Amino acid sequence: MIPESTTCPAARRTSNRRRALRRTWGGKEWKIARKEFLKEHPTCRFHAEHGLKIPATTPHHPHMESTQAGYPDLSRCIPLCARCHTALHHGLNLCPECHLHYKRWDQEICRRCFDKAHPEVVAAREAAKQRWKRIQKEKRKAARDKAKARKAGGERQ
Questions:
Q1: Rounded CA gap, 89 and 91, in Å?
Q2: What's the Cα-to-Cα distance from 77 to each of 5, 64, 70, 81, rounded to whole Å?
Q3: I want to staple 110 with a disulfide (CB 3.0 to 4.6 A). Which of 47, 58, 78, 103 is the partner?
Q4: Considering just the CA atoms, what is the radius of gyration of the chain in Å?
Q5: Residues pairing with 102 in the sheet
């Protein structure tokens, strides 16, 4: 934790913000409101859209003003499981094919489903990887041979 005598404005601002967030989201009032919200909305919204019943653990505030409107305002929140909440904050959403993994918003399916549907791409990717490894190995061998030649010839570096 940053000491109170910190003179750096950015560090002081960060420290104050973290303290305020701990006070807000760690308080008894929030915990009670969160518990009530999850009783009313027991399943994760993203999983429910795909017909799965995964228990929700977090009320997500999709709009910034919903956290500032009135504490704790859960009227505009959506119930999410911990995985979906983390994925949402990282720009990911649930894959419509497998409903297990996550994909970026601009992709149609996740990487695992894509690999299953296109084994030729997987084979080409693996061949490129092996080719890269072979080239790197040859470069390391050439560098070792060059160093040995210099050492044997008495050349200075």
A1: 6
A2: 38, 11, 13, 13
A3: 103
A4: 27
A5: 94
Give the model confidence (pLDDT) of 15-37 as tens digits: 888 888 788 778 888 888 889 99
Look at the block and give the residue holding tokens 């909305």. 41
Average pLDDT, the chain: 87
Q: Would you say how long the chain is, in residues?
A: 157
Q: Which residue has the tokens 């030729």?
A: 120
Cis ω before 72 (30° cut-off from 0): yes
Model-wide pTM > 0.85: no
Paired residues of 43 in beta bridges: 55
Q: Give 32's DSSP letter.
A: H
Residue type, 139: K
Tokens, residue 107: 């992709």
